[in-house]
Amino acid sequence: MTEFCSPFPLPSIPDDLTIPQFFLEGYTHPNSTVRKDPTDVWFIDDATGRQVTFGELRVRTDHLTLGLAASCDIKDGAVVLFFSPNHIDYVLAIWAFQRLGAIVATGNPMYTSEELVHLLRLSKATRIVTDARFLGPVHSALAATGLPSSAVILLDIAEMPAPSGIKTISELVSVGEQSQLAVPNQKLEPGGGKTKAALIFFSSGTSGKPKAVALSHYAVLANIIQLTAQHRDGTRPRALPQWAFLPGDVVTGLLPFFHVYGLIVNVYWTCFLGLILDVVPKFSLSTFLTSITKYRISHLILVPPHIVLMCKDPSVGSRDYGHVKSIFSGGASISVPLMTQATQLFPNASISQGYGMSEVIIAALPDPGDPEPDGGSCGKMLPGFVAKVLKADGSYGGPGEEGELVMTGPSVGMGYLGDQEGNKSTFVNGWVHSGDEVRFSEDGKLFIVDRLKELIKVRGFQVAPAELEDHLMAHPYVADVCVISILDDYSGELPLALVVPSAAAKTAIDDGKGSEIKAAIQKHVSDHKVKDKWLAGGVRFIEVVPKSPSGKLLRRILRDKVRSENGAVIA
């Protein structure tokens, strides 16, 4: 049996520390270059340019922890749901809750109230952190779940002051400033970091609505150290000097912090490397391009749609981005032609992509010491990971053979909350079955071939066809439906609904109202689902949805059929 591993050793991983202790206390890992002088800048507020030093971050986290302890009765093991865009206080608020033993779940703030209800019930969250712009769906979700309005804590934003009677982060910090108590600091027994849940991320599954993936403190710290070991030999960068991540370099912070890629890679890992994070609440291409120059950003951590926009913007070629050292893409595959275009715009930068999923965080990255990484490759498995290729016949494949990626390592999640069937099929004896069809090269580089789980990747976010199909079946115009994906330069993929129209819909179609029927079906989704799940790929009418004898949708048959009819436009 062939196993694929990293050529680099895995350093020690502390198993008795929480994430806040790892970053804020006196502990220092041998591979870390995290800067802990009180005057060292950690964050920049992109909109205002305000800098947050380590000393300010530490003190504000201390005060917020005390304020929460005094005013909110946060119990050990309680779940707090963050439902907010990126914010300068986002990370320190997470750490304050975790210091009190809470588990933090992170949700997409663009979800509808219906979707938010699902997240609250699935995670069993008892509090929600948001900002005043999202109080509409939040209050609707609280009413549906029976949670009181006092469960809400607001992040401060200048555009919209908090309504009276709702606690804000700044108010709780003020409460903590008046406290004479010592800052709570939960201690873990040796090995306790492996059993203490830290974070919950929501990952779509093919069976429908998002699954809740629980990650332990140990898994998060392990992945930070794994990523670092791939990039450094001790504290010496493996990359060529002009591409290296160096302490004091500025890195983009525009990926959503509610996503595992955004929080653990874009925030935690870069902080561990000693980089300065430019915190961006909302992406705007023009503002982003200006910020690259304004803050002398050296490293761009992005998803493919960001790169597409930059490559299509005519102003990019006239700007001087010679100081940009690296561009890293994740969340979805980036094509070789797109990587080539980006290289022309940023001639001094290394451009690469990696592979990860919420269930394991990041599993593969290119070797930063390789001056010419293979186009299309996600690099090699991180130190500590062991990967196998499970072929369709049940045997394991070697280099060049295709099959499902199966892997194990120290950052594997604790499993799905309340989903025994999902745990049985994905987390098998410590091995994660990814649902991705892959192959490895002779030298151990990972290439993604296809997705066996049929998830649609829209701008890096996972969209489950089954969730949309379940929703569409409730519409009176839909007798049956299958959702597949079409390729799109900007979004990567877009959902397309292949609909068997109901009798009433057929009558309207015969009367020349087919466009209105399609629009009504699309509106049924856009009225109830977050924008990434909208049927931006359109609606098409078909005679029948092919199914197996057991009733399973034969999605690939329809996908291949549309591909042949449309010149390979279907993913």
TrEMBL record:
Descriptive protein name: Phenylacetyl-CoA ligase
Source organism superkingdom: Eukaryota
UniProt key word Transcription regulation: no
GO molecular function: CoA-ligase activity
Protein keywords: Ligase
Occurrences of domain AMP-dependent synthetase/ligase (ranges): 34-417
Domain AMP-binding enzyme C-terminal: 467-552
Protein source organism: Mycena belliarum
Span of the signal peptide: none
Stored SUPFAM superfamilies: Acetyl-CoA synthetase-like
Keyword Ligase belongs to the record: yes
Pfam families (UniProt xref): AMP-binding, AMP-binding_C
InterPro entries from the UniProt entry: AMP-bd_C, AMP-bd_C_sf, AMP-binding_CS, AMP-dep_synth/lig_dom, ANL_N_sf
